[in-house]
Amino acid sequence: MSTLFTRIAKGEIPAEIVYEDSHVFAFRDVAPQAPFHVLIVPREETAGLASLPDEGDHLYILNAARRIAEKFSLDSGYRLVINQGKDAGQTVQHLHAHLMAGRPFAWPPG
Ligand code: 5GP
């Protein structure tokens, strides 16, 4: 059984893919929390940070974030977030990073 995000990668669930390579894919979040909000997802179905293997597609998330930021000229800044577990609000059990931009972000985060 594929995860929701793998089904998006396969085109079974519609989403606007903004970037992909052999390790990761990225698409716009259905409920954006910023003017620019995409999810960067490793092709391997790792549930989250807590079960991360030492090697794998997740190692390419940061490079993808930099490439997406360049592609969309996110020159004034952006935030990369990974939610792990209940307290962090993780809702999809397939590791993903949120890349958000287009507004100022508070610190500390809520
Ligand atoms: P989490 O809460 O696990 O860190 O993030 C999951 C994200 O997936 C949420 O921001 C949510 O809006 C997004 N999401 C959930 N279902 C879908 C979907 O079917 N399509 C898209 N594009 N995003 C989704």
Index terms:
HIT family, subunit A; alpha+beta; 110 residues; 15% helix; binds guanosine-5'-monophosphate
Mean pLDDT: 97
Number of strands: 5
CATH second-level architecture: 2-Layer Sandwich
Bound molecules: guanosine-5'-monophosphate
Measured on Cα atoms, how large is the radius of gyration? 13 Å
Described by strand count, sense and barrel closure, the largest sheet is:
5 strands, antiparallel
Q: Give the full name of the CATH homologous superfamily.
A: HIT-like
Straight-line distance between termini: 34 Å
CATH class assignment: Alpha Beta
Order of helices and strands: HEEEHEE
Strand order in space, largest sheet: 1-2-3-5-4
| Total separate domains | 1
Helix content: 10-25%
The total of helices stands at 2
Structure, explained:
The structure is a single chain. Strands 1-2-3-5-4 form a 5-stranded antiparallel beta sheet, with helices on one face. The protein has a single domain, classed as HIT-like (HIT family, subunit A). It is α+β, with helices and mostly antiparallel strands and 110 residues long. β2 and β3 form a beta hairpin. The chain is globular, with a radius of gyration of 13 Å. It starts with a helix and ends in a 9-residue tail after the last strand. The protein has helices at residues 4-9, 61-71; strands at residues 17-20, 24-28, 36-42, 78-81, 97-101. The protein has 2 helices and 5 strands, in the order αβββαββ. Guanosine-5'-monophosphate binds at residues 4, 13, 15, 27-31, 39, 83, 89-92.
